[in-house]
């Protein structure tokens, strides 16, 4: 990478290059050959700490994603439960402060969720025709949280189609009538559908589109006998706070790695994890750790967070690294696991840059963290609105929870569909008033309510234009009143 990475990021990148070279020499490209090398036992507490740190950075997105999908598709008694695997589950509304499972939720587009279990056979996903001018997307996310494919306005158009989603073990051919075969590196994958809602009166149109998002097993599509896989004994997830310090984190990671075959370039890394019992056949048991080993493991977890926090302060908050560099395919991230962890912590399931970018407004124009104790303005000059092919939004989040903010006017964002109702400045620009209390009736149309305490805002640019991707356009700064 050429953006002045911290030494820890360079170490990860170097490690990734080394193991990719080894994989090329040995010809490890398929599921059968891509098994971990024989583990070498760790020799000291320092080694355990270092391996635990690396495994934590590597595994955090997987474990946090499991927490979310367990709530959505496994925990039938939980408040966030949506339904079974391999079925679409639509929410014909946008997210509100009552939605607390996912950090930095999008409140622009009603969601349809599809949790997929691909162990037995592929699925056929059908997308209906959608009128031109309405943005939609299907984001395909594997257990590593890599965005491995897209269907939608940007990539496939609004004409509809049928898509086969297969797991790593499927070796069949594309059936007649299927537009594309999409392959996941992991047995479990998540598909997030986003459908643009223009305004509250548009909700019935969104419901009709969501009803056309269907899924069926390949066997049903081919009118053949159904295929089944053994039931999975899903283990209990950790809470977000527990994930930070509990050594049981690595038990969950080991469980998840059973359904995530080793990908090319990670054989040595996975063997390193296995040396302290972390892996699909791992023996890591948090309850049986010696005091010394437990201390070393927790020290590694703490060090991972320290490195992430330093990376956020030094690189993300200063704009040297942007959200565009945190999300993408496995090949795009290229073994940069600290970036992948940062993406999961700051906004898990973020889109690939070509689909959406997320400039974060976390400090004011003087570099001070944002707080509802004061008021701010964000001004978009008349020719400097976010450049998009679809639409944009500016959303408020209370910190450190990264959740939407309850407020008296139930406004969680300001977005481009709201432009006709916003008050323009004399030159045609738009000033957004960011504060806890109303700025007064004359300015309330442009008010984005803030919490009383710390907060940040995220700009979302859906289907961004080139000037947003290449840095020619820059988001406005928050100016303290």
UniProtKB/TrEMBL annotation:
Q: Name one Pfam family in it.
A: DUF1214
Q: Where is the DUF1214 domain?
A: 355-466
Coiled-coil stretches, from where to where?
none
DUF1254 domain location, by residue? 86-217
PROSITE patterns (UniProt xref): PROKAR_LIPOPROTEIN (PS51257)
Q: Which SUPFAM superfamilies match?
A: VPA0735-like
Query: Per its record, how is this protein called by name?
Result: DUF1254 domain-containing protein
